[in-house]
Amino acid sequence: MLFEGQTLFVTGGAGFIGNTLVRRLLQRTAARVVTLDALTYAGNVLSLGDAIGDPRHTFVQGDIADAATVAELIRQHSPRAVLNLAAESHVDRSIDGPSQFVQTNLVGTATLLDAAYVYWRGLSEADANAFRFLQASTDEVFGSLAADEPPSTEASPYTPNSPYAATKAGADHLVRAYRQTYGLPTIITRSTNNYGPRQHPEKLIPLMAMRALAGEPLPIYGDGLQVRDWLHVDDQCEALITVLDRGALGETYNLGADDPRTNLQVVHAICDAVDTHAGRPAGETATLITHVEDRPGHDRRYALNSEKANGLEWRPQTSFSAGVEATVAWYATNRKWVEAAADGNPKKRIGLRPRG
Ligand code: NAD
Fold first, then answer.
1. What's the pLDDT tens digit per position in 268-304?
2. Full DSSP string of 66-115
3. Could you tell which of 85, 139, 240 is best to mutate to test the pocket of ligand 1, judged by most ligand atoms within 8 Å of the CB?
4. Most buried among 34, 72, 278, 279, by the most CB within 10 A?
5. Ligand 1 center to 136 CA (angstroms)
């Protein structure tokens, strides 16, 4: 079985992609998993479900920018790989307050790279050859594409436009520098927008699904004609496992579904799924759509060329229509998770009864 006798160190494992990856690793591989997550507003231990209590899983609450904690955990668990998914990930929040993005996405990644490098330097030759530092990055580092431009390849230039994208681009550069300068065995994945169950309710698809289910207005930025390529989180996590297993050292892999659509089309698909789920007449939910002022620096179009990852025999398995229907159904039936995720009191997100 994959990763037999190996420990994988996953940061951000209580987040959206992280929890899906941790649970998938425990189900699909023989890996032991150590999760490090600061449990910010975006982290939710409830998302890890049965992974909490699994003897192959250790959960630690802590910050990737805390050098002592990171170094001690890596020393203690001797991982075969570090997968860095911890991040501040919401573009709107990065516009309101960029500094936490600099702290986590840049300083945090640098701290993690440093700890990984010190550890890797001390490994036997065989263990050092097997070691990987995998950085989860985003198509947003490429900035906005014109309608007629071809999808970004791994070699396309970086032109980030939001503070979020700028800190993710900077983190990619740090990862590259550790590879070039010190020889650290790194891999970067750059993915398009993800969607699926257990995504924080502030993000487009869960936000619209929940508002649509509740019969509330559905505010869309600007004309809603921004183009994105949505990848189901299960396909993303399968790609991370594939790249870790078979990806080439020092390489970067773009991960997209090659199925672009506008935000307006996405919201219409959600409305259709809600009509079906809630037994409403066709078209009723879409009447809730409204347009609000666009956000500053809103990129018009992202698109990735994923041929290199396809060459590792990875291909997305979930169609957008099936994925959205299942996602809407998930948000409709998991109210406890949704309320805890949206609640300001972190105790709800770790399954404790809040006091006071
Ligand atoms: P998320 O916001 O849902 O989860 C981030 C997790 O990181 C949370 O559990 C949070 O508590 C944790 N965290 C934040 N700061 C931390 C710190 N300093 N130390 C330790 N943990 C910390 O994000 P996500 O959507 O799961 O994204 C995971 C990664 O994938 C991020 O690096 C993101 O940039 C990247 N990515 C996401 C998408 C997407 O559409 N979701 C697309 C491309 C790339």
1. 999 999 999 999 999 999 999 999 999 888 999 999 9
2. -HHHHHHHHHHH--SEEEE------HHHHHH-THHHIIIIIIIHHHHHHH
3. 85
4. 34
5. 9
